[in-house]
Amino acid sequence: MIYDKPRFTPGGDRYILIEFGSEMNLTLNFMGQALAKLLEENNQAGIIESAPCFASMLIHYDPDVIGYDNAVIYLTELISELGPSDDIVLDSRLFYIPAVYLDPWTKEAIDDYRLKINNDKVHDPDYVTQLNGLENVEQLARVHSGTEYWVASLGFWPGLPFMMPLDPRCKLTAPKYNPPRTWTPKGAIGMGGASTAIYPEVLPGGYQIFGRTPVPIWDTSKRFDVFENSICLFQPGDRVKFVPCDMDAFEYYEQQVKDGSYVYNLIEYQKFSVKNHNDWVSNLDVNRRF
Amino acid sequence: MENIPLQTSGNIWKILVKVGDKVEEGQVLFIMEVMKMEVDHEASCSGVIQAIHINEGDEGLDADMIAITIEPA
Amino acid sequence: MFTVIKTGLETSVQDFPGRIGFRDQGFPPSGPMDSWSFRLANRLVGNEVGCAALECQYIGPTLAFEQDAVIAITGANMTPKIDGLAIPMWTSIFIKAGQELSLIFAKVGVRSYIAIAGGINSQPWLGSQSTFHKAGVGGIEGRALQKGQHIDWRSVELNNTLINRAVKSEALPDINNDKAISINVVYGPNEGWLDEAGKAKFLTEPWKLSSKSDRTGFRLEGPTLTFTDKAHNKSPEHGSEPSNIIDQGYPVGGINLAGETPIILVNDGPSMGGFINPFTVPGCEFWKLAQAKPGSQLYFKEITVQQAQRLGREQTEACNDDKITNQ
C-alpha cells in the first residue's frame, strides 16, 4: 500500500522515520532518493543526513538546532515540492559486476549450515528455482542476472547494498534463513524477500545465496580509484548488472584484484527517468522469463 | 592457600579442572564470558586444586569474587 | 606517546559525536557509549568535549607513558593507579614520563574513559577518529588497542592551571551498582505494532540485561510481547514473524525486536534491517546503558520526544566548561 501522505514518527530524540508506504515498491524508493537529493541541495540547518530504504527513509537531525515538530513541518514542505514520482530523474551510475553463478563457495557455506544447523535445508539454488516455478538452476542464473538492479539502500554492514530488480520479468522471491547462517563467503550474492544483496565481508546472514563476485565492494585501503571518495563502492541510486562469468574468469579477476590492476567497469553519465522506466515496464509481458 | 579471583564481572563459561587436579603456573583453569569475549583465568602458581567455588553456566557474577583455591606445591 | 602494556578487555579510541553523516552507507556513529562521562573527561584536561580519548570496557588497560601528560579518568571505577599508587577519578592529574597508568576490573559501572590533554592523535576515517572495531574502521589500525602499540597525543602546553581540576557535584552522572535501572524511552518509530497489553508489559516489567551484550547491541530477556492486527496481517513481503517489517532504517537506540530477544541498538549497531523498533532509547540515556552490568534489571519509562530533547540539552549543559572548577 502506498500512503496518501507520508507518515512521520520519532526515533528517540534525534531520528525521524518517514514511511511512504508498506510495500516493496520501486516508486517508494525513488521518492526517498529524490527527497535525499533535495535535502542535500537545501542544506537546512539541523538536518544532518538521510538514509533511504525500500519504502521508508530515516532522517538524522540535531535537536539542539531544530526540534521534532519543526523538522516534520520542514520535511512535509519538501516532500510536497517533489511533485509526482513520475517526474523524478536521478543521476544513476551503472556497474557491470562479474559473478560466478552456482559457485562452489556458496555451496560450501550451505553444506556447512546443513551439517551444523539444519540438515533439512534444501540447497539455495534448487530452493529458489522451485519456489519461483523455474525450469532448472541454469534458468535461475539467467533470470537473476538478466536485469539491472537498483541500489535502494546500503546498510546492515557498511557498503552492503540492498537492491531491487528493474525488470519485472526477473522478479524472484525467497524467504530468509531461519535461523540465519553464522557465516557467508565474502562477495556472495543472495536474495531475501524480493531484494538482492552482496555480502562485503564474511558475515552472518539470512539471504538465499547462489553466486559470488571476485571484486571488492568496499575497500578500507582505497587501492582502486573508484574508492577515492568513499570506501564503499555503491551509493543509493546506483544500478548493478551482474555479468555471469566462468571460474577461469573469476580467478583472472581475483588475481587482478590482488595485484591492484583490476579496472571497475563503471558507466558514469546516465540519468534514470522514473517515467521512462514505468512506460517501458507497462509494455512488457511480465510472464515471459529469460 | 592461593586464591584465584574473577578478573571481571560476567559469566562462567568453561571450568577446565576439578578438585584434586595438579596444575602448573600459567595453566588455564577456567574461562569467563563477557561481552561475547572469552577471558582466560590462569593458575598463579603450581599446585593442587583445593576448592572450586563456581559452576559452569553461573551468570552475572561480580569481579574479584574468589573462584578457585589452590594448595601451592 | 604511551605504550600499551596490557590492553584490557576491549579498549578503543573514540571521539564525540562519532562518525556522523555516513549512515546511508551503513556506518554506525560509534563514539563513546557514555558520552556524559566522556565529555567531562575531556573538559577536565582542557580539551574540547569531542576530542579523541580512550573508552575502556569491563577490564581497563595498563599504559606506559613515555612523555609528561595531563590525564583524567571518568566513568566506571577501575581502581586507577599510577605506578601502583591509587589516583582519584573525576579530576585532572599530571603523569610523568616513565610512569605507568593501570586500570583493572570495573568495580562500579562498566565503562571508563581516559582523556589526555591535547587529545589522542590518530588518523581520522570518514571525518572521525572513532573505532568501529568489528568492521576494522577508524581508531588505531581499525581495531581496539593491541599490546605493544605506541599511541600519540597532540602536545599542548602543560601548566599548573590544567591539573587538580574537578567537576561540580551537580554535573556528575550517578554511576552506581544498583541492580534495577530506570531507562527513559520514546515511543516509536514503529508505532501501532505492539497491542495495549504488549505495550503495558514492555513498560512495566523488568528486562534483564544479558552478558551477550556489546557495542553492537544490548540483548534483553523479558516478557513475551503481543501484537496488533497490523503486525499479524500484513503483506508477505514483510516476512512471516509479527515483528518482521519491510527493511527500514534503524535509529541509534532503537529497541529492536529481532527474533526471540529484543536488542537495544547501540553505538556500533546495524543501520537497517527487517525488524520493528517499537521504542527507542534517546541519546541522553545511553550513559545508563553504558554503565549497566549484565544481570541488571532495566525498567523502561515512556517520555515524549520533547522531554527527551530537553534531557539531552541538560546533559550538554552539565558538560559545559562552567561545570569545571579549579580545586
Count of DSSP-assigned helices of chain B? 0
Overall number of structural domains of chain B: 1
> How many whole angstroms does the radius of gyration of chain C measure?
20 Å
Query: Major sheet of chain C: order of its strands?
Result: 7-6-9-4-1-12-11
Helix- and strand-based class of chain B?
mainly beta
Mean pLDDT of chain B: 95
End-to-end gap of chain B: 10 Å
Which range best describes the helical content of chain B: under 10%, 10-25%, 25-40%, 40-55%, 55-70% or over 70%? Answer: under 10%
- The outline of chain B comes out as elongated
Helix content of chain C: 10-25%
User: What is the CATH superfamily classification of chain B?
Assistant: RNA polymerase II/Efflux pump adaptor protein, barrel-sandwich hybrid domain
Largest interface: A-C, 54 and 55 residues
Integer average pLDDT of chain C: 95
Shape of chain C: elongated
Low-confidence runs of chain B (pLDDT<50, min 5 residues)?
none
- The total strand number of chain C stands at 23
Secondary-structure class of chain C: alpha+beta
Please identify the oligomeric state.
heterotrimer
How is the biggest beta sheet of chain B arranged?
4 strands, antiparallel
Any key phrases for this structure?
heterotrimer; B: 73 residues; mainly beta; OB fold (Dihydrolipoamide Acetyltransferase, E2P); 4-stranded antiparallel β-sheet; 3-stranded antiparallel β-sheet; 7 strands; elongated; C: 327 residues; alpha+beta; Cyclophilin; 2 domains; 7-stranded antiparallel β-sheet; 7-stranded mixed β-barrel; 23 strands; 30% strand
Characterization of this structure:
The complex is a heterotrimer of chains A (290), B (73) and C (327). Chain A has 290 residues and is α+β, with helices and mostly antiparallel strands. Chain A is built from 7 helices and 14 strands. Chain A has helices spanning 26-42, 68-82, 104-116, 124-131, 137-145, 247-259, 274-282, and strands spanning 2-11, 15-21, 47-52, 56-61, 89-91, 94-101, 148-154, 161-165, 188-192, 195-198, 208-212, 239-244, 265-267, 271-273. A 7-stranded mixed barrel of chain A has the order 6-11-9-10-8-7-12, surrounded by 5 helices. Chain B contains no helices and 7 strands. In chain B, strand 4 and strand 5 form a beta hairpin. The model of chain B has no long low-confidence stretch (mean pLDDT 95). Chain B has strands spanning 2-5, 11-15, 22-23, 28-34, 37-42, 47-52, 66-72. Chain B has a single domain, classed as OB fold (Dihydrolipoamide Acetyltransferase, E2P). By secondary structure, chain B is an all-beta fold. Chain C is an alpha+beta fold and 327 residues long. Chain C folds into 2 domains: 2-167, no CATH class; 180-316, Cyclophilin-like (Cyclophilin), CATH 2.40.100.10. Chain C is built from 5 helices and 23 strands. Chain C has helices spanning 35-44, 196-204, 229-232, 286-290, 305-318; strands spanning 2-6, 12-14, 53-57, 62-65, 69-77, 81-82, 85-86, 92-95, 100-102, 108-116, 120-121, 150-153, 165-167, 180-187, 207-209, 217-221, 244-249, 254-256, 263-265, 272-275, 279-280, 297-303, 324-326. Chain C has a 7-stranded antiparallel sheet, with no helix packed on it. A 7-stranded mixed β-barrel of chain C has the order 14-21-18-19-16-15-22. Chain C has a 5-stranded antiparallel sheet with strand order 2-3-10-5-8. The longest helix of chain C has 14 residues, at 305-318. The two termini of chain C are 28 Å apart. Chains in contact: A-C, B-C.
